[in-house]
Amino acid sequence: MPLSEHEQRMLDEIESALYAEDPKFASSVTKQRVGRPTARRRLVAVLGFLVGLALLVGGLMVDVEVGGLRILSFIGFLVMFAAAAFGMFGPRGPNLADASSPASRGGSSSRAKPGKPSLSERMEERFQRRFDQDDH
Fold this sequence. Notes:
Layout: H1 5-21, H2 23-30, H3 39-61, E1 65-66, E2 69-70, H4 71-88, H5 96-99, H6 119-135
Antiparallel strand pairs: 1-2
Helix pairs in contact: 1-2, 3-4
């Protein structure tokens, strides 16, 4: 289910606050995301999946069994699974989250300003405001 506009804005605020408070931690977390595969990687994955599908269907037509298992169909399934995993979990392309960090946009230093409340303090204040609004 997609996020509402309000939830998306809140998520963006939390992300930018995280970058402002601890850019080193934020960049290490964003590097662990699964990125979008490159066009070549997607092409190889699709071709591998189609070859696996052909082996799976072909194995049903050819009567080659080992211990009651249609071995050609099983190999086809494994090829399909490997192709899907290859397409999803490979090396990532450029990370868009790193390009949108405040440090890369010329933002402030990694330390918060003395008068500026921390992320947890701001979140507490927002929660308290919402809680007070719900009571009235």
